[in-house]
Task: structure prediction
Amino acid sequence: MKDKRWYPVMYMFIVTAILSAAVIGFSQYTQEIVQANQERNFEIAVLKVLPDMYDPGLSSIDLHKTFTEQLDKPTEQTAGAYTLRKNGIIEAYALPIEGQGFWAPIKAVIGIKSDTKTITGLVIYEQRETPGLGAEVAKREFTEQFENLVLSINDKPISFRRPGEELQQGQVHAITGATQTSTRLEKIINFNLNQWREKLNN
Amino acid sequence: MAKGQTKQLAYEGLWQNNPIFAQVLGICSTLAVTNLVLNTAVMCIALVFTLSFSAVTVSVLRNFTPRNIRMMVETLIIAFYVIIIDVILKAYWPQMSDNLGPYVGLIITNCIVMGRCEACANSNPPAKALLDGLFNALGYSFILLIIATFREVLGMGTFLSFNVPYFSSGYWDKWTIMVMPPGAFFMLAIVVWIFRSIQISKEGKKK
Result:
């Protein structure tokens, strides 16, 4: 039978079918856990961009509690942003943003003060950029530039400058060697911010 | 299986034919993940698992697999185990999954796995293939852990993220280069040099 022409095709087909079935079954089984992990990552990202909301000492259950109890879910009035209120007055917004990176979509959360002009923080919680180059945008060394950054008043609220260049209002340093990721991220942030502010004002 | 054979396989995999310093295979992952001992340990466990099970599976199927498509079948089997590990890490240890990033998936292309499947598992019974795979993976692991220990201690002053006396204090000027890619090349070269020298001097004595 082994020397028949169809044998290798048949054999490959059967082995592939068995192994793929096993992989599919297994990933179905863990899908819920993976999803819960992703949701937790998102919740932590939202807490991190808001002022004084994230406490690294808290367990993930407590973080989830903080997230659900202290923040208000996005509504039409907030144009899709989570809000942090004190005595009913909005203190800050956390806006989830998303867009195409160099390899795969980049998902992030950006925190904005109630004046809609000052950034309180940026956390990139999902990206598949090149490790060591584009992936550096998710690191704290890069994202801490956004803390207390005042947006520029023209139609480009944030602009990326070459590393080492002097910065003006609304400007941050890009990542060396990751031009593609940097320009794409700049576009994602600006597009989402502009759209959100427009919706919010209407 | 004879006891002598197990010993022989252990000697071959761990020392005589060590994947890193004798065969010089799987260098890519050696360079990539050795800046922290914990990451390295997880990577090693993943490789031990993949290599042992792939070798057994290839060996079990060896009499049914047609020669001309055997590489395809081997890649498929290796990929299967690697995806399983990837899913396990994503579900139960997401932080480690993020730390290792694409490197878990890249075990598929780790030359050691394919190399052992071709060299041993393809033509030997499952028990021998398992031991061969296991000892080769352990041979790879212990070298990686040596490199990682030096890189983490010298570069960050920590071991498994715990502070090491002296190295974490102000007296030690941390060698940042050790945790960056060039440090991996330096350490790998030094380790290969030392182990090869020992090996060669031992061979010389035998003669």
Q: What stands out?
A: The mean pLDDT of chain A is 90. Residues 6-49 of chain A form the longest helix (44 residues). The radius of gyration of chain A is 22 Å. The interface with chain B takes residues 2, 7-8, 11-12, 15-16, 19, 22-23, 26-27, 30, 33-34, 37, 41, 131-132, 135 of chain A (CB under 8 Å).
